Amino acid sequence: MIATPDRTPLPRSFFDRPVLEVAPDLLGRILVRTTPDGPIALRLTEVEAYDGENDPGSHAYRGRTPRNSVMFGPPGHVYVYFTYGMWHCMNLVCGPDGRAGAVLLRAGEIVEGVELARKRRISARNDKELAKGPARLATALGVDRALNGTDACARDETPLRMLTGTPAPTDQVRNGPRTGVSGEGGNGDTHPWRYWIANDPTVSPYRAHVPRRRSS
Questions:
Q1: Residue 125: count of CB within 10 angstroms of its CB
Q2: Each residue of 46-74: pLDDT tens digit?
Q3: Nearest partner of 133 among 78, 39, 183, 205, judged by Cα
Q4: Cα separation, 210 vs 199, whole angstroms
């Protein structure tokens, strides 16, 4: 018999920890996206940690900018960025206020509001692909830059909220290099800071970073 996930909101103290502690602990947690058409709930199955100014792969590696300012806190807020001129990706800010850190939400299983997610992800071949990858996850949930800075721990109504869910058993948590990350000095791709639930069909495939070739 499968236990019913805990629907208690995660407290801010959950995120006010080092990003490498928070990232694996997010697996199995539930993210709820409230929309005018109804709620969509997602069980997290894959994430990546980005350790701010200590991390060549992080947007905050060179310090605070207007784009990445949300990454510097407070913890528990949502950092959304736009990439490749077409996709949004969603992160949860971690660590003490004033120090950049965030966890990229890479993949998950839609456990509520599947029909709403299907309308946004009409190219998905099946429900396992609805949020299989960070851009697909954001698209399925209807997340864009308008939600950047949202407090996922707010007590009042909020469009994005993290719930306790059912944490993944530690023996089912795997980690390895982050997907497609390079970073200054060649260090970004070697950090084993991608975490996922073993054998879960919603986890995205790993792809190593491929340097762009400059035309002669």
A1: 8
A2: 999 999 999 999 999 999 999 999 999 99
A3: 205
A4: 26
Burial of 171 (0-12, 13-18, 19+ CB in 10 A): exposed
**Over 80: is that where the pLDDT of 86 sits?**
yes
Type of residue found at 194:
R
Both structure tokens of 207: 């792809």
Residue 69 near residue 62 (C-beta atoms within 8 A): no
The Cα 102–Cα 109 span in angstroms is 21
Provide mean pLDDT across the span 96-121.
97
For residue 23, list its beta bridge partners. none
The alpha carbon torsion through 140, 134, 112, 2 (nearest 10 deg) reads 160
Q: What is the pLDDT of residues 144-190, one digit of tens each?
A: 999 999 999 998 889 999 999 999 999 999 999 998 886 554 455 57
* The total number of residues written for the chain in this structure: 216
